[in-house]
Amino acid sequence: MSFITIEGGEGTGKSTLIRGLTKALSAQGRDVVQTREPGGSPGAEDIRTLLVTGETDRWDAMTELLLVNAARRDHVERVIRPALDRGATVLCDRYLDSTRCYQGMRGVSRAMIDGLHESAIDLDPTITLILDAPPEQGLERAADRGGDARFEAMGLAYHTQLRDGFLSIAKADPNRCTVIDATQSKDVVLAAALAALNIA
Question: Is 102 in contact with 38 (CB distance < 8 Å)?
Fold first, then answer.
């Protein structure tokens, strides 16, 4: 249970859930590291700025994949792996499944994404919680909070494909992934997440 990733489309409440999980797990006496992607380390945060700002056509999908993996390698080597090595629980807002969806939906093959991950990163999550909501609702929430404008601007059809992508990943890997209805209240979502993690 030590490496937990939270996935889902824009505005599904990932950050809110991670804050709730951090509080709950810390109350259990656990060493908890809360982080995010792209980003999570100083170098990766610099790359994040390149990825989430600018025009929608600023990068093609392959360039995005390379940037994401450069950020992820720095993040894993400087933050995630050291935390896991000391026995901490890591909660990460987005990880490999987001790459499979965001860049995969734009034409990069799953084989390319997974092959690059295996060769450059080689660290998979133990458990993944996928927050699911209609993309119209998620985009409205994201706009209200001021999210990552470049990806939000890619249009409803793209975000509908993203949702389908996350649900397909969950269906293909039910032992790792649990889908949670993100249209519910934050307290209900947190309770569902704790139940999925087998934490009272």
Answer: no
